Amino acid sequence: MTIYNEPGALVWNDAAVDDPDAAQAKAGGKITMAPQDTEFGRFAVLEDPWGAAFSVMQDPA
């Protein structure tokens, strides 16, 4: 059995947003990866004040 919430386990959170640039500016915290375009949509990776990483992503038009 695999337990995913044990200490040190990787947990990734995503949020769908209309504008990753605006979301990154509003969220504060640390920018781990600045907003950029990919074939899957524009996204950015952020870190909250407690050190948890999460991404914000816009669906491609």
How would you describe what is shown here?
With 61 residues, the chain is mainly beta. It has a single domain, classed as 2,3-Dihydroxybiphenyl 1,2-Dioxygenase, domain 1. Helix content is 13%, strand content 43%. It contains 1 helix and 4 strands. The protein has one helix at residues 20-27; strands spanning 13-16, 30-38, 41-47, 53-58. The protein has a 4-stranded mixed sheet with strand order 1-4-3-2, covered by helices on one side. Strand 2 and strand 3 form a beta hairpin. The mean pLDDT is 76.
Write a compact overview of the structure shown.
This protein is mainly beta. It has one helix at residues 20-27; strands spanning 13-16, 30-38, 41-47, 53-58. The model has no long low-confidence stretch (mean pLDDT 76).
Mean pLDDT: 76
Q: Looking at CATH, which topology would you report?
A: 2,3-Dihydroxybiphenyl 1,2-Dioxygenase, domain 1
What is the general shape?
globular
**CATH 4th-level superfamily:** 2,3-Dihydroxybiphenyl 1,2-Dioxygenase, domain 1
Largest sheet: 4 strands, mixed
Provide the spatial order of strands within the biggest beta sheet: 1-4-3-2
Query: How many β-strand stretches?
Result: 4
- Total count of helical runs of at least 4 residues: 1
Helix content: 10-25%
CATH class: Alpha Beta
What's the N-to-C terminus distance? 40 Å
Give me the Rg, rounded. 13 Å
User: How much strand?
Assistant: 35-45%
Helix/strand-derived category reads: mainly beta
Question: Which series of helices and strands comes N to C?
Answer: EHEEE
CATH architecture: Roll
Low-confidence stretches: none
